[in-house]
């Protein structure tokens, strides 16, 4: 490590952020669990016993086998199998990767839209602010899931089930991202309204800097703290939205496992006794969303000294 790298690491360790993190056991545990789940999802092709996308590795005769420890279990399938005969451990690993990809992708999209529109509305003001915020208000008057259901249904009817299944990941990222951008836009706008009155913005104007440079190079870096907090929570919301849409049949198809589609695929088999097909992916979804929300709450408290009690 170079001297500069060591110096940056020392400053980070001495920072309030690091100090508060190492004293918060819930934040540490949540980070470890989330990191473990992300790494398991990334390395799913190497960790999963089978490939749920490879039909040659699926045997319908192995369908609905219970997890190890129950009568009729097979040691080759530690978490059992689903109704199609797929290894449940493998489908959960691949499904977690899909859910995380949709969650992060949707937040990146809504972050890009929200930051852009929030900066324009807050800095330019006037008619631009009025138009953008009225659009945001109209969209916020509907629930996020309702907007996603309407847009998802339109896309599915337009492309058909087969075509929609092939581009389902990109469609879900687009649908959820577009449905959630007003929350980030309103937060950014509020921060910009406070920042643009400060002296450094006046100094940038006097020096002849353009509007774009002032917004993105000077004001935006000073509005990032609330964006990080919202983005963390929005990842969890996007994952829940994907699960809800998949459960309603407007998300990932059953042939492309996500946590939501896995829960849906096993829902019809609960009463027949194959509870693990829905329960185990459901527990994974709950844990994933819970640790992300706990990290979001910790970030909110740390980045707001008036709320932090550490």
UniProtKB/TrEMBL annotation:
GO biological process: transmembrane transport
Protein name, entry field: Peptide ABC transporter permease
Organism: Marinobacter santoriniensis NKSG1
Gene3D superfamilies, alphabetized: MetI-like
Statement: the UniProt record of this protein carries the keyword S-adenosyl-L-methionine: no
PANTHER family assigned to the protein according to its UniProt record, in alphabetical order: ABC TRANSPORTER PERMEASE PROTEIN (PTHR43386:SF26), OLIGOPEPTIDE TRANSPORT SYSTEM PERMEASE PROTEIN APPC (PTHR43386)
Membrane topology: Multi-pass membrane protein
Keywords: Cell membrane, Membrane, Transmembrane, Transmembrane helix, Transport
CDD domains to which the protein is assigned, alphabetical: TM_PBP2
InterPro entries recorded: BP-dependent_transpt_permease, MetI-like, MetI-like_sf, OppC_N
The UniProt record lists the keyword Translocase: no
UniProt family annotation: Belongs to the binding-protein-dependent transport system permease family.
Location within or outside the cell: Cell membrane
């Amino acid at each position: 490590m170079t001297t500069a790298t060591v110096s940056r690491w020392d400053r980070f360790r001495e920072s309030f952020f690091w100090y508060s993190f190492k004293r918060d056991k819930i934040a540490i545990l949540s980070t470890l669990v989330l990191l473990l789940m992300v790494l398991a999802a990334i390395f799913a092709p190497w960790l999963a016993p089978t490939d749920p996308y490879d039909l040659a590795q699926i045997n319908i005769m192995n369908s609905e086998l219970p997890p190890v420890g129950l009568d009729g279990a097979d040691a080759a399938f530690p978490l059992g199998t689903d109704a199609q005969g797929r290894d449940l451990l493998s489908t959960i690993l691949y499904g977690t990767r899909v859910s995380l990809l949709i969650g992060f992708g949707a937040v990146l999209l809504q972050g890009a839209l929200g930051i852009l529109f929030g900066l324009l509305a807050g800095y330019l003001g006037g008619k631009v602010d009025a138009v953008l915020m009225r659009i945001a208000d109209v969209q916020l008057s509907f629930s996020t899931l309702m907007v996603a259901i309407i847009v998802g249904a339109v896309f599915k009817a337009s492309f058909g089930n087969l075509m929609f299944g092939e581009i389902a990941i990109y469609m879900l990222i687009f649908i959820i991202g577009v449905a959630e951008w007003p929350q980030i836009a309103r937060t950014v706008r509020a921060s910009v309204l406070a920042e643009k009155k400060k002296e450094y913005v006046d100094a940038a104007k006097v020096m002849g800097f353009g509007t774009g440079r002032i917004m993105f190079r000077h004001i935006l870096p000073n509005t990032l703290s609330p964006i990080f907090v919202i983005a963390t929570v929005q990842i969890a919301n996007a994952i829940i939205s994907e699960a809800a849409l998949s459960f309603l049949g407007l998300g990932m198809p059953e042939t492309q496992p996500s946590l939501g589609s896995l829960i849906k695929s096993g829902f019809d088999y609960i009463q027949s006794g194959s509870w693990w097909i829905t329960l185990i992916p459901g527990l994974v979804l709950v844990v994933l969303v819970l640790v992300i929300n706990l990290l979001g709450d910790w970030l909110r408290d740390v980045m707001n000294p008036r709320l932090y009690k550490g």
